[in-house]
Amino acid sequence: CCVCGQTGATIMCCEENCDRWFHLPCAKEGGCVTQYITPYSSYCPEHRPEQDVQVTPEPGTECPICMEPVEDRMTFRTMVCPACKRAWFHRDCIQGQAMRAGALFFQCPLCRDGEAFAVEMFIMGIRIPFRQPTWEDNDAFADLGERHSWCNAKKCLYPGGRDEAEEEGPWELLLCSSCAAEGTHRRCSRLTKRIHHWECDSC
User: Fold this and answer.
1) Where does the PHD-type domain start and stop, copy by copy (predicted)?
2) Among residues 107, 123, 146, which one ends one of the domains?
3) How many domains does one find in the chain?
4) Which of 21, 28, 51, 174 is deepest in the core (most CB within 10 A)?
């Protein structure tokens, strides 16, 4: 392995006439690039693809993902969006974003370009899995679509409790007409049947 110097299962640089071999786990540490698209090519540090963007980051530029400073030029570990040429980020940060977003939602963290950005990142060795984003796992945001369903009055009078309500009448549950994040039974807030709009104390 040209990175760690040890033997074992290795892959070879795809550049013609290059005789460098390296372990896949050593590739990133040694600045090698492995493209996770067909035909799954790998390149040594000397022959790896480089971004063809003639820009440098402004002094004090921070990675929009981790908010830590990036290097003052393009390197293996500091990359730039090929679309806007303003978003500079660390390779590790954009790799993490790719793993979380998946192919359908992976985009530049600044300009939101998806197509040119993803193609460039594939070429530069960023692995972008073809799956749903991790925030869709286990219905993580399912509760955001649920309607508020209990009475928030200081003293709830309904015999069935705060979590119960009826379709109409004094025990109908009205939601705040501004935020819909709080509710009240009509009787608990002395609302007559002619009142169709109610606002909570916060609004």
Assistant:
1) 1-48
2) 146
3) 3
4) 174
